[in-house]
Amino acid sequence: MTTQSTKPIEDAMRAKITEVLKPSRLEIYNDSHLHAHHKAMQGSTSRETHFRVVITSEAFKSKMQPERHRMVYALMKEEMERPGGLHALQLRTKTPEEEERQMAREREEQCQAIGEIEKQ
């Protein structure tokens, strides 16, 4: 007995991104409920139209953001063309080096904030 997924677009997105981009980090957030009231969504019964996706991958190395986004959109072409399918993607794409630099900055900011609190 095969059980049909309740989130086929998210599952397809996860499978395709994982297979092709081999991410070290992949976070997928379904934000469709936040957009259900938009005029373009009237009459749509899909609960998988708007996603926010964070991807860290070596595949993005030496590529600018527009090219990285095109890579992801190309993977999701079928889901975007399907009636009632994927309507919008909000992408945050990074290389592992970019992610490490960001994390180092955030750690430094936290240490500075703690230092300021301790001075008070």
Task: Please characterize this protein's 3D structure.
The chain is of the alpha+beta class and 120 residues long. The longest helix has 24 residues. It is elongated. The protein has a 3-stranded mixed sheet with strand order 1-2-3. It contains 4 helices and 3 strands, in the order αββααβα. The mean pLDDT is 85.
Short description:
With 120 residues, the protein is of the alpha+beta class.
Task: Name the descriptors.
alpha+beta; elongated; 3 strands; three-stranded mixed sheet; single chain; 4 helices; 120 residues
Low-pLDDT parts are none
The count of DSSP E runs of length 2 or more, i.e. the number of strands, is 3
Given helix and strand content, the structural type is alpha+beta
Q: Please provide the ordered H/E string of secondary-structure elements.
A: HEEHHEH
Secondary structure layout plus pairing:
Layout: H1 8-21, E1 25-30, E2 50-56, H2 65-75, H3 77-81, E3 88-94, H4 96-119
Parallel strand pairs: 2-3
Antiparallel strand pairs: 1-2
